[in-house]
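Good morning,

Attaching, inline, the backbone tokens for the sequence recovery test we're adding to the shared suite. The designed sequence is right after.
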């Protein structure tokens, strides 16, 4: 039941141990990741958009809600939702987005401070108020959802750690249960964020970035993969397709997923 999964998700954030929460983009990837033993999963806005034949930031709220319901119905672990800006301009605004995602089975959701319409960062006070509105709606549920406030600086060309920490503190004070600054890869900077905010911190696992053991050593609570797993899967597809069309060979199939792994994930 969604409420039971929300309680499990909150418990993961209350524990002292780091947990890894990878990001599937469809039912197949979600079931495969669950079979691997992860305790929670999260959607990826970019990965889901690509699976829908779209670019990131172009999925509608209705499409996202159906996607979340499909993944939640297909898996048994808590599901966090990459809900972008929580659709403040849609009917009912962010409060309606929270209600719809809760009804779809979400255990948590995130809210961003980058506005694709302007191509820039929201003013911190505006973004903090949106976090406050999301938190109020999410925490009023009979079994509350975990709210993550996101500072998008470091994936939007703003390399300003002081501003990132300022934003994360504002989102914490507005009611966020966890915070996230995707794009940080320097362990000392990540440690500074953890020390400053005092609530669970999510870190995006990046190529060449710290290992999960290193992140755990500085107090990171949660690690996610964003669109990276989806990107790697699609890269493998394109590489195989190009081999086939240019060379006529199928060596790409040598690394195909074992059938017994598929059976474990899909034979339910």
């Amino acid at each position: 039941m969604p409420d039971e999964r929300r309680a499990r998700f909150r418990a993961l954030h209350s524990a002292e141990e780091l947990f890894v929460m990878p990001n599937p983009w469809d039912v197949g990837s979600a079931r495969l990741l669950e079979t691997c033993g992860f305790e929670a999963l999260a959607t990826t806005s970019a990965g889901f958009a690509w699976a829908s034949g779209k670019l990131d930031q172009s999925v509608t709220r209705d499409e996202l809600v159906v996607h979340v319901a499909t993944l939640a119905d297909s898996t048994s672990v808590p599901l966090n939702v990459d809900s972008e800006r929580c659709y403040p301009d849609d009917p009912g605004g962010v409060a309606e987005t929270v209600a719809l995602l809760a009804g779809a089975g979400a255990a948590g959701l995130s809210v961003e401070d980058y506005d694709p319409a302007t191509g820039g960062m929201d003013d911190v006070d505006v973004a903090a108020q949106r976090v406050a509105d999301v938190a109020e709606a999410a925490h009023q549920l009979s079994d509350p959802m975990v709210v993550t406030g996101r500072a998008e600086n470091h994936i939007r060309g703003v390399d300003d750690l002081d501003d990132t920490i300022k934003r994360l503190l504002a989102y914490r004070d507005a009611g966020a249960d966890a915070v996230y600054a995707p794009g940080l890869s320097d362990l000392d900077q990540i440690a500074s964020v953890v020390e400053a905010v005092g609530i669970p911190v999510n870190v995006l696992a990046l190529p060449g970035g710290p290992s999960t053991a290193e992140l755990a050593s500085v107090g990171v609570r949660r690690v996610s993969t964003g669109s990276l797993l989806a990107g790697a899967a699609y890269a493998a597809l394109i590489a195989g397709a190009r081999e086939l069309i240019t060379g006529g060979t199928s060596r790409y199939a040598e690394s195909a997923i074992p059938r017994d792994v598929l059976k474990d994930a899909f034979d339910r």
